Amino acid sequence: MEAFLISTGLVSIAEIGDKTMLLAIMLAATWRRPLPIILGILAATVANHAFAALAGSVLARFMDAEWLRWGVGLAFIGFAAWALIPDRFDEEPDMTEKTFAGVFWTTTAAFFLIEMGDKTQVATAMLAAQFQSLPLVVAGSTLGMMLVNGPAVLLGEAAARKLPLTWIRLAAALGFAATGVWVLLAH
Q: How far apart are CA 41 and CA 105, in angstroms?
């Protein structure tokens, strides 16, 4: 259960203000079709984070435990610094397809591609390496993404303007740093 709860918490905090959250807001404002957008985000996140967690689990099997501990711990401290850097999203979605299927597949593809190499994807890989519980990490990281992106779609652009993203980035950085220090100090 620890893997699930930590994955949910860290990913949800890291996702606030992230480029995929900005994409969720932009798609919602453009298409005003929340259900296919939310389902597309869910599908993309499950696929992307399952891939990341599998990669993290495989990495953990081939690395010495001490090297893995240092790698994971330092990666989370690096995520702390990364979380302080604001994301920017410059691309416009294709506004020609407004059917349920068109919005769903466009959202799924966009989220899957934009999530590649993102801090939440890399964090999912590192969490899977740390906890060696692929289903719990994927479920937790997916829930964390949906806890942020679901409301972002529903609340749209107006809510994002009112959130103090600087403080949220700081909270994410502190969460990542605390996890990194915990991993390094726990034996």
A: 10
